[in-house]
## 1
Amino acid sequence: MLRLGAIPASLPTRTDTETVAYAARLTGARALVSLERHGTAQLGDIAREAALTCGHGLGVFLFDESGGTWRMAPTGQRTSLPASAADLAHIMFTSSTTGRPKAVMHSDNTLTALNIGFAERFSLGPDTPIFLASPLGHSIGAVHGTRLSLHTGAPLVLQDVWNPERALETIEAFGCAFTVAATPFLKDLVDASWPRPTPKLAPLRSFLCGGAQVPPSLMEAAQAGFPNTFVTVLWGMTEGGLVTCVRESPREKLMNTAGFGLPGLELRCLSTTGDILPAGEEGELVMRGPGVFTGYFGQQDLYESEITDDGFFRTGDLARIDADGYVHITGRLKDLIIRGGVNISPAPIENALADHPGVNAVAVIGHPDERLGERICAVVLPDGEAPSLKDLIAHAQARRLPKHHCPEVLRIVDSMPMTPAGKIRKADLRAVAAGDGAVSGEPA
């Protein structure tokens, strides 16, 4: 596509027909390129139906085992690029937990700034192969996979279908030195069996983990299980930014923060009234810098609504920036639980519950309550026998969680709804929280 002069607008393979058609309409896309099928997913059917319903002429090019097939689109009016897209190089769609994905615009300059920042911070070059199991249609795959590989000249080693044991073997076989992946990938690798005498992930110099909350207990387990590998939380968005620790970071920062920004990235925390907060105070994290996106395609009003008067992008994340410049992500503005008029962030509660032996995955959300507005609900995917609410409360209090932050309602699920980026879809879980038939605590 780049050689053709086309502008890629990438979507994960786990995208439904309606979303593909919406993305095509929003961007005025002229061609849709896809596999005929991926596993059991009939992507060709999705592509053909999306082309018929998108509302303008859309060519479809499908690959299968025998090669490629091209279906010409009916003649349609071409959509001109908005003025804000003059330097557009790539459109990446947010893996939004609510509502429609947004079409995030990046330029060659913003993408190159991110690639240079990572190459310099983690000493990447043509001799450091990159392993990637994340979807190439997601921003992690696009920025830290294909484009980073093109930038450094390093081989890009891909895993099509996730299997942690196979990933360990692949990294060993190809000497992969760098990867970026979401939290579930890291946990699976920690838990995977490895009968060989060499340490797990022995060739891997750096493992950047992001996309979802990374509990300190998982960081501890990764450090113990991967003695040759530097593991750090990666905070970032499809819109850019990117924050990590480095090998020289103090252990306390490595275990409990997201690190500090790439060169040139400016970060602030703002109060609800828009004032800049001093070090250590919680507020909305905003960012400005060379790796930050240039706008939302076709949604200029939305973009302007999320930019401050001095050009900082409102991330929607709650955070504290300490005196050393390290970022402590404390939650999402929309994820806040409002219990009796008090705002409670789910992130510390999730961290406290994550290392319970009966918890495979946990999300903390608000449970509707007539008296308090919301109560604290823990939605748990169990690991073996499901824990009781009493067990979780005792575990949380042993982790020094305040009593008024302990879960009051428990819902047990057999699967967690996930985005392609590995984030739990909390919006989908709120219907679970409001349902009947689960264990709940006594009214406070």
## 2
Amino acid sequence: MKVVGLIVEYNPLHNGHLYHYQESLRATGADASVAVMSGNFLQRGEPAIVNKWARAQMALDIGIDLVLELPTAYCTQNAEVFAYGAVATLDALGIVQQVCFGSESGDISWLQELAAQLKDEPVPFKEALKTHLNLGLPYPKAYARAASSLAGVPEELLGQPNNILGLNYVLAIKRLESSIQPATITRQKAGYHQANITDQQIASATALRKLIFEQSLESIKPYVPPSTLHILMLEKAQDRFPMSWENFYLLLTHSLTVHSPEALANIHEMEEGIEHRIKKHHPSALAFQDLMEAVKTKRYTWNRIQRLFLYILLNLQKKEMERLKQDQKPPYIRVLGFSEKGRQLLHMARNFWPYGGVAFLSR
């Protein structure tokens, strides 16, 4: 079988995701699909609106054959680490020939050319990145500007979220020396962060979450497959939906109260004394949103602060992440769900590993 890999969050799965899945099959000529999906926490440092098992079922219901979990240690990181973990998981499976992702540009050629130049992070790029960071630019903007100056790619292309994720997928393929081939399709009708809805059937996940929290679950009906709405209604009936940071704020408050600044300094990505700013503003914050507004700065973006709070909540230590960086392959592959064709894919994958070393895990 020809197998295409998809890297997803499905928070929740909507009609745009359905379009991406269908177009990925068409563009690559694939017979089967494997999705690597974030678990209960997401790349922007927030809890998924519904648990990973429910979101895996959404994926199976639209036709995806095999759903694997991207471990939390990868899926809650910046774009580079997120992309590396996802591609490494697909590569370790051993049966995926292509990975297809959405991008604002819809053009794979410039992504491949730029990735070839950035693969080993040449000195001019590192120096430009350091200069822009020292000027106080947030890391994503500093990275885009440094990469743009190196390769002559317009900075606005690299400032678009799916383009930068796509670049990091291609970089991961090259750094892993994987045989997987990248492909991309153009994102349609709704931007990644677009909170307003401008189409009758397509809306971003950001806009749909806004509708859910500000209006009702039923209000998203035009923008999601019927199976998604059905699953969310079942989860709501069980009081497992919708989830947000406010559900975890008391736990975060406890961690911030009992840990000293010195202890917080050992948390992953805690840098430049930001732990003192967090400790200063925490006592007066009545809700998670209040704390975010108080701690966020021009240099420390909303997503970066959210990820820091998540690392505190999970007690993710710097020394633990250093060990992760030394591993070239994921230590395990957790299966979240599969179809009958997915069962065949798992059998093929097991036959790929005569040497062992990567374990399958299930519920």
